[in-house]
Write a structure and sequence with these properties.
4 helices; two-stranded antiparallel sheet; flat; mainly alpha; single chain
Length: 95
């Protein structure tokens, strides 16, 4: 989803829509990409209707339906995880 968040109203609409997705079983796959396992075409239609009825006035929300077989074939390509946080043993100083 690509929803603008420049104004206070747009930010509120984004938060409300995101909360609706999470409340209805969606998980964030990556930033702005949410997914949900659906078990039947009738459930798929009801979820799509929920999204259509509650989408924010501005922005772009796209729906892509894939099968479970296609989903499990997804490859995850990630980089190395780095952190600038110093481990507590390395900090020293004041406790």
């Amino acid at each position: 989803m690509d929803i603008p968040t420049l104004t206070i109203v747009e930010k509120r609409d984004y938060r409300c829509f995101r909360k609706l997705l999470i409340k209805n079983g969606f998980i964030m796959l990556q930033e702005s990409v949410y997914c949900k396992m659906i078990t039947s075409p009738s459930v798929e239609n009801s979820v799509k209707n929920l999204i259509y009825k509650n989408k924010p006035a501005e922005g772009l929300v796209q729906i892509l339906t894939i099968t479970e077989k296609q989903f499990v074939k997804m490859d995850y390509v990630v980089g190395e995880n780095t952190s600038n946080v110093i481990d507590s043993e390395e900090r020293g100083g004041i406790l």
